[in-house]
């Protein structure tokens, strides 16, 4: 393993692979940071690439990720592409000595994620995965309440992200198991799992029991409003709703649910509720990603003791990218940012899918 310090007096040179919504979030965040230079972007959408290149003044607009990773004038790469490409791109970049920021989930499964972490350790480079929802201002405000001991010892929690009609693109890589690795558990549930465990102080998950359902997607129902069926027209091979019961170290429990499509209120819901020995708390975000600040309520013993702590809007991908850049600029932090955190999430999700397939609880 070789660690080479980044010259903080020189611009940090980055490339972005992927031109969709997530890639554009990375691109905008890098472009707004002092001391960072976007050297290249890569993606198959030629017209979009040229437009983004002009808007953000990117010198190189490439079609193939292999050409971007091969560039000598790079220090780091963002990977914002379909999940099946995360591992090959990240591993190739790490082997080139580049730092990597990947979109979630880390990969299609823990085996691929493990190879990414091993590559990061071998190269002595940073591998971070973008979990932007834990950086919401309301999540951070609730975290402060829990960490301050306001609810005592948390012993049970439940969290969800539920959609009515929100299958990202019927017939696309999202609904193809080989390309995606899973449905809403891998897409939305990984966020839910991440912010829930983050709020609870990162307890170890010791066993899971899960069930998956595919009731609407296989019938062509539940597609995101205004999004046509993708040209790939892949069969619907994943779940459209999942529920998981997690046993935590110390006897605690966590229930995680996520759906792309279910007959429920048409407004997306992200929520979290926690029950403790001295109180409880909940966060309710109606409108999900369109609502900058959700409603927080804290419940404690005694009349008039319930309250709603203030919260401000978070900064999402901007904060993710800023933290990644700060980590890359500080070699002392590299070893702690090898992708292990995201790999833990992947192992839990793998266990959930195995539990659903085998109909039994799975120990981790």
From TrEMBL:
Residues 139-281 form the GFO/IDH/MocA-like oxidoreductase domain. It comes from the Bacteria. GO terms for molecular function: nucleotide binding; oxidoreductase activity. Residues 12-131 form the Gfo/Idh/MocA-like oxidoreductase N-terminal domain. InterPro entries: Gfo/Idh/MocA-like_OxRdtase_N (IPR000683), Gfo/Idh/MocA_oxidrdct_glycsds (IPR050463), GFO_IDH_MocA-like_dom (IPR055170), NAD(P)-bd_dom_sf (IPR036291). Keywords: NAD, Oxidoreductase. This is Oxidoreductase. It comes from Arenivirga flava.
């Amino acid at each position: 393993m070789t660690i080479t310090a980044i010259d903080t007096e020189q611009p940090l040179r980055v490339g972005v692979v992927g031109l969709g919504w997530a890639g554009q979030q990375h691109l905008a965040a890098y472009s707004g940071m002092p001391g960072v230079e976007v050297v290249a972007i890569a993606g198959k959408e030629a017209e979009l690439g040229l437009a983004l290149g002009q808007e953000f003044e990117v010198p190189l607009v490439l079609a193939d990720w292999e050409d971007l990773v091969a560039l000598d004038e790079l220090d780091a790469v963002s990977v914002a592409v379909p999940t099946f490409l995360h591992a090959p791109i990240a591993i190739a970049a790490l082997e080139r000595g580049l730092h990597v920021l990947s979109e979630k989930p880390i990969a299609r499964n823990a085996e691929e994620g493990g190879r990414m972490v091993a590559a990061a350790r071998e190269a002595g480079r940073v591998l971070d995965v973008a979990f932007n929802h834990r950086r919401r201002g309301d999540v951070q405000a609730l975290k402060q309440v829990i960490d301050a001991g306001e609810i005592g010892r948390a012993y049970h929690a439940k969290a969800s992200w539920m959609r009515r009609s929100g299958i990202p693109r019927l017939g696309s890589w999202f609904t193809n198991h080989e390309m995606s690795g899973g449905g809403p558990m891998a897409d939305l549930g990984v966020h839910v799992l991440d912010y829930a465990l983050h709020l609870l102080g990162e307890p170890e998950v010791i066993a899971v029991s899960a069930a998956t359902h595919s009731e609407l997607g296989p019938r062509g129902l539940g597609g995101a409003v205004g999004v046509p069926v993708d040209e790939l027209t892949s069969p619907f091979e994943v779940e459209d709703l999942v529920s998981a019961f997690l046993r935590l170290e110390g006897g605690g429990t966590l229930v995680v649910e996520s759906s792309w499509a279910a007959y429920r209120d048409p407004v997306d819901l992200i929520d979290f509720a926690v029950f403790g020995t001295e109180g409880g708390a909940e966060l309710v975000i109606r409108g999900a990603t369109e609502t900058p600040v959700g409603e927080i309520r804290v419940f404690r013993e005694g009349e008039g003791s319930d309250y709603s702590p203030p919260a401000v809007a978070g900064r999402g991908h901007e904060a993710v990218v800023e933290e990644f850049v700060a980590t890359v600029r500080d070699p002392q932090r590299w070893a702690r940012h090898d992708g292990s955190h995201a790999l833990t999430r992947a192992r839990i999700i793998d266990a959930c899918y195995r539990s659903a397939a085998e109909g039994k609880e799975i120990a981790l």
